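Notebook entry, cofactor series.
This is the third protein in the set we're modelling with a bound small molecule. For this one the ligand is guanosine-5'-diphosphate. I'm keeping the input format identical across the series so the outputs can be compared line by line later. Sequence and SMILES below, as received.
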Amino acid sequence: MPHVAGPARPAAVRVAIVGCPNVGKSVLFGRLTGRYVSVSNYPGTTVEVARGLRRWGGRTFEVADTPGLYSLACLTEEERAARRLLMDEVPDWVVHVVDAKNLDRMLPLTFSLVEAGFRVMVVVNMLDEARAAGLEVDVDLLADRLGLPVVGASLVRGEGEAGVREVLAGGGARPPGPPLVPDYDRATEPVAAALEALLRGWYGLSPRSVALLCLQGDPEMIELVRREEGPRWPEIRRLIEEAGRGPRPVRYRIPLAAHALARSVAAAGVRRIAPPQPSAGQLLGDLLLRPLVGLPVLALVVYFGLYRFVGGFGAGTLVETLDRVLFLDLLNPWLDRTVDGLIRSEVWRDLLVHEYGILTLGLRYAVAIVLPVVGTFFVVFALLEDSGYLPRLALLVDRLLKPLGLSGRALIPLALGLGCGTMATLVTRTLETRRERVLATFLLALGIPCSAQLGVVMGVLAGRPLALAAWGAAVTVVFTAAGTLAARIVPGRAAPFFLEVPPLRPPRPVNIWRKTTARMVWYFREVLPVFLAASIAIWLGRLTGLFPVILSGLGRVCSWLGLPAEVSVVFLFGFLRRDYGAAGLYDLAPGLSTSALIVASVTLTLFVPCLAQTVLMVRERGLPAAVAILTAVFPTALAAGWFVSRVLAMAGAAGW
Amino acid sequence: MPMRGRVVTTLAAMRPGETGEIVAVESPDQAGCRRLFALGLVPGAVVALVQAFPSFVFTVGRTTVAVDAETARIIKVLLLSRPRSPRPGFRQTSSPRPRSRET
Ligand SMILES: Nc1nc2c(ncn2[C@@H]2O[C@H](COP(=O)(O)OP(=O)(O)O)[C@@H](O)[C@H]2O)c(=O)[nH]1
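Returned structure with ligand:
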């Protein structure tokens, strides 16, 4: 922070990296600061702003990596976060990263940044991919035309990094002349000038930029201006309304002028020197767009990725080894003995060890049962993410998600929900309308089993393919029915679907490793305290006699579902943490009949989300929406469980 | 580029393999329009439809974009070429007539 530095030392140079999703901002950030943030291949990864400090060229730089920004006239929460950062902090440098292959559609943002008064430099990234596409980029010519410092780069290979540092440190060739900005037409300029002249407030953006954004109908900016400009507001509003009138209103002409100029600059600066050589990745990427190829590949991904790797290896081999060998055979008996030797009081011993202890239960569940499953899932997800496969899947399933009021975009949070519902609830931010965010949050809370549940369900139903199919069918039916119903009830229009499909890139092992570890660290930081807290809650509950009361209540629910009373323990734990409850089921499984296992698995999968997810639901969607979602989930889960138990009983499978 | 009359239609009515120039984006709401602009779907841009099912997939410049049918219907295009291929819906990589996408 500038205030911290003494007067003798000049404050850090503040640099903001901006640009569309997927252009290499995170890679540049990592290279400039040496710190890692999630690097990935689908729109909407860097949800939060990452910052890093680093010295070079004799100065200190504070670099911020902003969420993807398509245009200064923003639409999503992420874009607004990026713009707010620019407006609040007014960085000394704005580094606009663009994709060399798509200059024509990225340069309009460069113009907007210049219009807003920022000191801009342009990084033309992905030169390697441009070369493979047979394109030659004339960086000097672009610098000349734009009147800005321009650096050509292939950031994943480190190419261009030195050039960026040099420009930021004040070196590099000075571009001649003022930066290029669009001239708007005769209908637009007078309105823009009139509006600009009325603005007195401080916005962090130039008045011209604020005027242009208002004329384009940007709601957040208009609201800001209404509050800032008081007495001048009626006149401003008149100008804005005027800009929306006519067959070719001013609000459309503004972006069109910027795009036309961008196209002429791109046409001059990028030449085709060779026919495009479609790479193997491109051909495969095109094939995956086709349902006949994409859906079988999806089946393979689910079978090998989820069933064999997460279910078989993660929930099977790894859990078996860690749980049986490490905890049950070695660690727990030793812990029991050690603690019993150290502590006299029965009550305090029970807090730490024995059946429900922090160490023997909380730590064991977190490390031995949940971690292997979540960890293997994150590896699979990172592979799919980094390769560019997820957007291809999104466009295949868009039609299927439409009846649920969702668009193909929602696939990313829903799929991530198979890993961790809490993290997925956070990622629903990338969805465009509030309606879609609420519906996705609801479905995550109800019908998407997280990897811990999935692993345990697969574990307890392993070797009983029919039971697994029954569970899958029941959950799918409830998911679809509840989703369809919710889409009818929640008011609003269907979310439109449009998505940029990035090129298929071979996943990079470094990225997979970093992304998986970053998520595991996040998960562990979030999960371990809750597991330990849950252990304490159980201890307190038993000590105060509250638990037996709740358990007997839940026991009645269980018998209504045709389940033995011990399962109520699982439900109670599941309330504290959904995966925790699932892990408890794992312990009970040997004593239960198959049909009881199916009913318990179905109910537990649909049952209220875990504590952490509930907290996040309230934070992200607000209390009323969260309460509404929970009130819908609870009876749905019980009704579904009851229904399944009836169906199984009628099918004569009760004792199965 | 061969042009057989000036057929103005929507992206939703194009067939795979056809190219067209965007003449207008008629979104009922301003926001949707701006987002499509940001993806490069501006009047004057040339699009080539890759497939129409399950979503509309097309290239615009060097970007591949997928949209649903509702969105495809608000993008008005001027048809530039019709494929000669007797099998619509199937893109042949070894087509004798290269699709001219670069402008
Ligand atoms: N071929 C190539 N890929 C790159 C380059 N820079 C970044 N990438 C890849 O592009 C993807 C998106 O990069 P990222 O930094 O996450 O983009 P962001 O969304 O702008 O932060 C990642 O898979 C990177 O590995 C480059 O210069 N060449």
